[in-house]
Amino acid sequence: MAARFASSKPPSFFLLGAKVTPFGRAYFSTSIVGESPVLVRDFIHAALYDPEHGYFSQRSGSVGVLDRSIKFNQLEGRKAYMKHLDAIYKQSDTSWFTPVELFKPWYAHGIGEAILRTANLSVPLKIYEIGGGSGTCAKGVMDYLKLNAPTRVYDNMTYISVEISSSLAKKQIETVGEVDSHLKKFKVECRDAADPNGWGIEQQPCWVIMLEVLDNLPHDLIYSKNQVSSWMEVWVENKCDRSELSELYKPLGDPLITSCMEILDLAKDGTTHGSMAGSVARNILAKIFPRPRRCWLPTGCLKLLQVLHGALPKMSLIASDFSFLPDVRVHGERAPLVTSKKDGKSKDHNNYLDAKGDADIFFPTDFLLLERMDHYCSGWSKPHEDNSKSKKGKKRRTLMLDTSSFMEEFGLPLKTRTKDGYNPMLDDFKNTKFYLSVPTHNIK
């Protein structure tokens, strides 16, 4: 899960709609890369999740949980809201907060309504949540279904949290357990959702919820020295004296990278599929103004979608994440924001290699690319295939909404409005979106 650190200027922080992450002991070491080079996605995974040196492992503070819901209708406006949050952060300087926590229970209720409105209620409702944090989303969704769904739907539902952190798994049970009837329907599976060995095959319709999960999934990086040179895989290695990390470029060969490039319509020789005139123009530009190219590939997301579609072929998906990130200093298309915090001050880094256990690395989500990967992994579409002309019906129906539109459609935005009409859930989350994907029966 990604985080934008709190600063002395809360408005710039809330423009991100982010969560606050505690700063822990920096680990300036190249130990997260061993004797052999590793792909960039493996470096990022280690920098974030290595048991000894990873960013999240270094920060053992529990996920931020508000003692009570914020009473927005008692706040005068934006200034009062910011002051209230500042007090919350000072009391919880070892925690971060997600939108579902800041706007509980209303944020989760909107998700519950979206599920209730589109779920196939002729079969028992089954919900998986990946990376469920403190359990606030699970409890909020189950609360909403208990109050608004037909009795038989709530009585027969199952809610499964797939959580890699054992401490968070325990916290989720405590949170959901505040309502006795929820516990019989809720369970936590402490495992990595991207590991196919943890899944069976679920043939019944089900829902998968992922809130702020995509932004911290490992990415790969490809490099080309100019506009027409072939793409190369980027690896990370220790220099001879093991005091510094550097990049190593290798010919393309990794299956996840090549699959992602196919979905993106990136040719291996450095071109994109287009006109001959375009190719000639690129060759001329490459000679006159040679410019290195760097492209970040969401291979971690692709792997997760492959696993989910393989295990849950009739799943419906609801995901929320950053659609863009401001002030990114790392180079490349879809580049991450790399941020550390020291002595209460945030620092954005120019190079992802600066993240050696002391910095968060989080990416924007290209929602159009997410849709293409989702369709690809479901088996409906293939790279370069024109689905609009295909005689085969759509296998999935997708919808992308910004957060304010999603909450206006499915939520109760009046509940998060202050006295003067300011609504932080609608007004402060301009760079986040929701993605909904459901299977159809029109596949013949």
UniProtKB/TrEMBL annotation:
Keywords: Methyltransferase, Mitochondrion, Transferase. Belongs to the NDUFAF7 family. GO terms for cellular component: mitochondrion. It comes from the Eukaryota. The keyword Secreted does not apply. Its EC number is 2.1.1.320. GO terms for molecular function: protein-arginine omega-N symmetric methyltransferase activity. The keyword Lyase does not apply. It is an enzyme of class 2 (transferase). It is found in: Mitochondrion. GO terms for biological process: methylation. InterPro entries: NDUFAF7, NDUFAF7_sf, SAM-dependent_MTases_sf. Gene3D superfamilies: 3.40.50.12710. Arginine methyltransferase involved in the assembly or stability of mitochondrial NADH:ubiquinone oxidoreductase complex (complex I). This is Protein arginine methyltransferase NDUFAF7. It catalyses: L-arginyl-[protein] + 2 S-adenosyl-L-methionine = N(omega),N(omega)'-dimethyl-L-arginyl-[protein] + 2 S-adenosyl-L-homocysteine + 2 H(+). Pfam families: Methyltransf_28 (PF02636).
